[in-house]
Sequence to fold (471 residues):
Amino acid sequence: MLDQPLASRDGGQVTLTAEIVEVFESRLRGALIRPSDSAYDEARQVYNAMHDRRPALIVQARDAADVTAAVGFARDEGLALAVRGGGHSVPGFGTCDGGLVLDLGAMTGVRVDPVKGRVRAEGGCTWADVDHATHGFGLATPGGVVSSTGIGGLSLGGGMGHLSRRCGLSCDNLLSADVVTAAGDLVTCDAETHPELFWALRGGGGNFGVVTSFQYRTHPVAEVLGGPTFFHMDGDVMRSYQAFIEQAPEELNAVFAIVLAPALPFVPEEWHGKPVMGVVTCWSGNEEQDDWVRGEIAGFGQVVGQMLWRMPYPVINTLFDELLPAGLKHYWKANVLKRFTEEAIAVHLEHGPKVPSLESGPFIFPINGACHRVGVGDSAFAHRAANFSLVIAGSWQDAADNEANIRWVRDYHAAIAPHCEAGGYINFMSGDDQARAPANYGANHRRLREIKAVYDPENLFRLNQNVEPAE
Ligand code: FAD
Fold:
């Protein structure tokens, strides 16, 4: 069977004998899955159902030795290599046709050091794994707003969520990482050891190697006040939101959205399915100020419904899980911005209400506060002067709606992009955004290309928002 050609890295073909593959398999502790195996169809799936790809081989790594073996095998045999953490990449970078998938999903060990205020998590963890472990000690490290998202892709691209304004991006909290490089070395990098690699991992995506474990700083966050507030569509809601976020205490995080109102008990029935503005709040400050927070947010405009309650921190990262299960289709586009201009607000008021599905919407993450305490050149994440990260997220159920959803995202993005910075957050991009790499990596693109030339000169790790090695 394996005498058939496989996909090579450069788009050509590679022929491997069954014997070569068997020798490789004998070096693994995890499973090696082939298309003829019963586990294949489940193993090849990624979160975004737009990508129905058929890899030739899938390694379900159990440890760093498996990762080293798989990286070496793909490199030596010239195979296309897709590295998968949580599998949430909208462009489907965690899979490929005809090549090798290195799936880290079984590597989910987490160890918390409550004395030093650190957590070490293996490269296949989701945020649910990390939140659960740290919460046991009344601690948290900032992650994403959906618990099934992988810590791998999210942290390497930057990492925005409900604690960004207070604790910074996920990558700002990274203290060290164990990385299998393209050469097959397992190196531990931090501010002192392999500092250039450590710099590049914090915003440069999966370009520089496979991270087998991440070590993050933790913060004392046990409970938060959180939940959504929905408003009538009105430009003043955006103006008030912006003015508030520019000066609010850093313990206050609020993600802005335009969505179809969900059929939840606190939303009046006549609003169900109608376009509304929404603000998802996370207040990790003092409980005595909860009512102040409720009032400030409600003051943004005419409220359709508000539901803010005290919850354990991990719970706020599950509020969207049910709405966004694996198997939906996704197409997203993104930019960062300093301020919403009046022209930008007009674009949102025109395109936002046309949101085509319950799961879709423009979402605006605040990235000021603690995110601004890291300089542009201090890590690879370049957007330190921006206050907001916008994603036009198309997410839907039925393949028959592909065209309508993709068109909505593209039209909206074409209209709003002139009112934003040129670049955007790499983790909110789609597969057709590769040409935007210079803007997305911004002032740090050149340095990333130089580091890529040192750690991955042949561009083995290319299924990502790619940084090409400097010549
Ligand atoms: P994967 O598809 O597994 O990987 C994505 C990329 O990272 C690939 O290029 C892969 O090779 C690389 N990679 C993954 N793990 C490793 C590793 N251990 N070592 C080396 N490379 C690795 N982003 C935010 O910042 N905040 C959010 O709140 C947020 N919410 C989201 C919600 C949903 C429903 C979705 C679909 C995405 C969300 N994102 C968010 C975007 C998210 O950050 C990216 O999709 C990210 O790439 C997901 O990482 P993953 O490990 O799950 O993905």
Summary: Residues 167 and 242 are 20 Å apart (CA to CA). The chain has a mean pLDDT of 97. The pocket of flavin-adenine dinucleotide is lined by residues 47, 83-90, 93-94, 104, 123, 144-146, 149-150, 152-154, 156-161, 206, 210-211, 324, 427, 463-464 (CB under 6 Å).
